[in-house]
Amino acid sequence: METQSKFSYYPGCSVEGMNKAYDKSARVVCDALKVDLAELNDWNCCGASAYMSIRELRAHLISARNLALAEKERKDLVVVCPACLNTLTKTNHYMAENPQLKKTIGTALKAADLQYFGSVKVRHLLEVIVNDVGENEIKARIKNSLKDLKVAPYYGCQLTRPFGEVDDPEFPTMLDNLLTWIGAKPVNYPLKAKCCGGMLMMTKEDVGLSLTKNLLECAKENGAECIATICPLCHMNLECYQDNVNKHFGTDYHIPVLYFTQLIGLAFGFSRKSLGIDDELTPSKPLLEKHLEVIR
Amino acid sequence: MTEKIGVYVCHCGTNIARTVDCKSVAEYASHLPNVAIARDYQYTCSDPGQEMIRKDIRELGLTRVVVASCSPLMHESTFRRTVSSAGVNPFLFQMANIREQCSWITNDRELATERAKAIVTGAVTRVNYNEPLEVKKVPVNPDVLVVGGGITGIEAALQIADSGRKVWLVEKEPTIGGYMARFDKTFPTLDCAACILTPKMVSVGQHQNIELLSYSDVIGFSGYVGNFTAKIRRRPRYVDEEKCNGCGLCEEKCPLKAPSEFDSGLGKRKAIYRPFPQAVPGTPVIDKEHCLYFTKGACRVCEKFCPKGAIDFEQKERVMEIPVGTAIIATGFDLFDAGKIKEYGYGRLPNVITSLEFERLTHASGPTAGKILMKNGKPPETVAIIHCVGSRDHNYNEYCSRVCCMYSLKTAHLVHEKTEAKVYEFYIDMRAFGKGYEEFYKRLLEEDVAFVRGRVAEITDVAQIPSEKGKLVVVAEDTLLGMVRRIPVDMVVLSVGLQPRNDALDVAHTFSISRSRDGFFLEKHPKLAPVSTAADGIFVAGACQGPKDIPDSVAQGGAAAANVLSLIDRKEVELEPSIAIIDEDACSGCKICPSLCPYHAIEFDEKKQVAVLTAAVCKGCGVCVAACPSGAIEQQNFTNRQLLAEVEAVSA
After folding, report:
1. A180 and A68 within one domain
2. What is the model's pTM?
3. In a shared domain, residues A23 and A65
C-alpha cells in the first residue's frame, strides 16, 4: 500500500501523562496503517477548553502557535483528544471570521518569528482512520477478529459539537462503523454523544458522578461488555471513577473501558502490552480471553 | 426642431423639501439647455399639479417633460398619463428620483440640493434623446391554467369557472384535495375538514367549465401574458377515466397491499387504489411499483372483475399542449422532515410521530378508525406536543410556519376529547393571531392542557429514574420556571413546519418566476401585489408563496382568481415598449443572449444564424443588451445614447 498523506501529530498534554496507553496504541495502529504520524515539533498545550473561557485572546494565541507550527511544516494536524480538536478548530474558525482577531494574533506570532495564514485543517484520528484509510484497508489487516465483542461506542460531546463538520452532531455513526469493520458489535447506545461530566469531576463531583453513572448504566442495560472511547478525559471519568460511582450510588459496575485504538490494535493482532492494555483499573483481560482467538 | 422642456421639482410635502432646496433646484434647471420652464410645486402628483403640467404643454408648447420627485415605481405611470392626455407621447416624459435616491438618504441640505441638481441635469439631458414609442396591445386568451388541486387551487378554479371561463386544473396526485383532505378537524372552529372540503371537490369534478387533469404535471410553459402554451404530461393510470364508473370492485379484488401514502404510511392500500373514498376523480390508479402484473407479469385480477372493461395495461404517457392566457400557481408546500432533528428520535423511537401522522390516526377513515393509539395498540396516558419542529430554527428554517401553534392546540384538544391522556405542549411563543384563534387558545387553557414554555432539547428513551422507565422523556428548559424539566410521556407529536416543495425550483424555472430567500415563490409586492409575480399573467396563491393556514389560502385563491378575471375582462393587454431590439445585421451569431434571457424571449435562427427576439415575451430586463459583445442589442427607452447622455450629465 502507498504511504498515506503526511500529517503532523499533535498528541496533547493528557496523553503524555494520564493517558499514555492512548498515545502508545495510536502510534502502533497508525504505523500498521501507514498513516505517517510525525510529532509536531515544539508543540505546546492547546489551553484546553477551560482556558478559552477565562482568557480568550491568550487561549487563541497559544492555540494559534500550534497551527502556525503545522503550517510551517505544510501539514494538517491530527489530534487524538477532542478537546484539543475543539480548541484548535475554534481558533481556526475565529481567525477566519474575525479579521481584527487575526491581525492581533498575527502580531503576537510575529514576535515569536511565526505567522499563520489559516491553511491548516485540524482532524481527529478517528475521522482520519475512518475516512482516509477506510473499510477495505482496515479489514485487510484483521488477524484477530473481535468476534462479536459487544461494545458501547462512546463519542463524548466534543468530537461533533459545536462544529458538526465530520458526523451528525447528535447521533454520530463513525465509530459504530469502525467497530463493525474490526468484528465487534456496537450496541445501541443512545447516550453516545452525551457529556461524561468532563472537569466537573473535580469541581462538582456529585454532578460529574451522576453523568458518568448514566453512561455506565446505559451501556450495561444495552448489553455492552466494554466501552470504546476516543477522548482521554472521557476515558478517565468512565474508567477511573467507576469505583467512586459504585460507592456513591451503591451500584456494581465493572465495565472495561478501552480506547478505540486499542481495539483496532487487538484486531490487528498486536500484543496487549504494546497497546498499553492491562494498565486499566477494570481489567479487560477476562473479557478479551473470552472473545479473542489468540491472546497475547 | 428645438425641444421645449418643462421641469417640475416636487416638494413631496416635506419628504423632499426638508433636505432639498427645491426652489433653487428649479431655478438652476431653468438655465439648462432647451428648458422652457422650470417650476417647484408642493405635490406635483395632485390634480392641480398635473393640471399645471397640462396647462404648460398647451400654452408654452412643451415637447418634453421632466418631473423630479419620487421613484418611478410610484408615479411614473401617473405622469405618463398626464403628458399623454395633453398630446405628448408618454415616453417623452422622464422621471428624476430625488426622494429615495436623494432627500431620504441624507440630512445634509447643501449636499442634497447639489445632488438633486445633478440628478435633474441628467434627466433633462437624457429626455432630449427620448424617442416616442407606441404601446402594443395583444388579445387575452380567456382560458386559465391552475396548477395544484389543493384547497387554494380548488377555490381559484371554482371562482373562475363559475364566472363562465374555462379552467384547466392540473394536479400531480391521483386526486385533488391536497393536505386538507388528510386532516381530521380544522382550527379554530373544529369543523370536519372533509365535510367542508369534499363538496368543493365534487363541484370541481362536475363543473362543465373545469377540465381536471389529475396525475399530471406541467413540464413546459411558454409564450407571454394573454397567450401562453402549457405543456402537460399525463401519466398513465392504467384505468380509462371515461369508462370507469368508480364501483371499487377492482380495489376489493386486488390481492396486493402497499403502504398508503395518504395515511402517511400508517395504513395499507391496494396496488390499484383510490387514495381515499371521496377522491376526485373517483377513478382508481394502478401503482406500477407494486402491481403483480407489472412486477411479476401475472395477475390481471382487476381486469377480470371490472364490469366496464376500464382497465388498460397498455396505457401510455401522453403529452398535451394547451393554450391559455393566464396561470395560477398553487402548488402548496412540503412538511419539514422531522428525521433531520436526530435528538427528537423520529424514525428511531416508535411513538414519536409527526402531526400529519396524528391527523391520520385521529381521522375516522384513518388506519385506526379514529382511535389515538400507540404502536402497541394501547391508548397513551400522557402525550407531549412539540411546537416549532424545523421552524424558527437557524439550523433548518428561520421563519415561523404560522400554522403550527394553532394546529398544535387542535391536536391537544383532540387528544383531550378522545383519550384520558394528560397533554403537555412545549412552545416557544404562542402565536394565535387570527380570527377566533386567541379564543381557541383560551379554551385549551381551560381544558387543562399543561403549557411548558421552552424549546425541547431532546426526546430520549434513556431513563434516569425508575418512573421514566419505558417512557419517552421530553427534556426542555422551562423558561418560565428557569429550570430544566424532564417529563416522561407515552407519545410525542412533532408539530412539523412548512417548507417549499422539493420541486419548487423546477416549477420556478418552468414558469420563469422567482423565489424568495426561504425558497417560496416570490410575489410582486408583499403588501400591494401579494398574488402577482414579476411575470405578467402568472399568479401565485396559497402556501407555495409562504406558510399559510386554510382561511388565508382560500383568500389568496380567490384573490388570484379575481386578478385573472380582471385581466380576461380587459380582453387585451398592453405590452411595455421598453424592450430589447436586435439588429440582425450587427448580430454575430455568438449565441450568448439566448442562454442568458431569463424569460426565454430570444431564440436562435439557425438558418439566418442570428438571434431573434419575441417582443411580447421580452420584459426589458436588459441582460442581453449588456451581454452582447457586438453591441447589436439596444433596449428601447434605455438606449446607449440616452443612458450615456444621462451618465455624462450627472457626473459632469
Report:
1. no
2. 0.85
3. yes
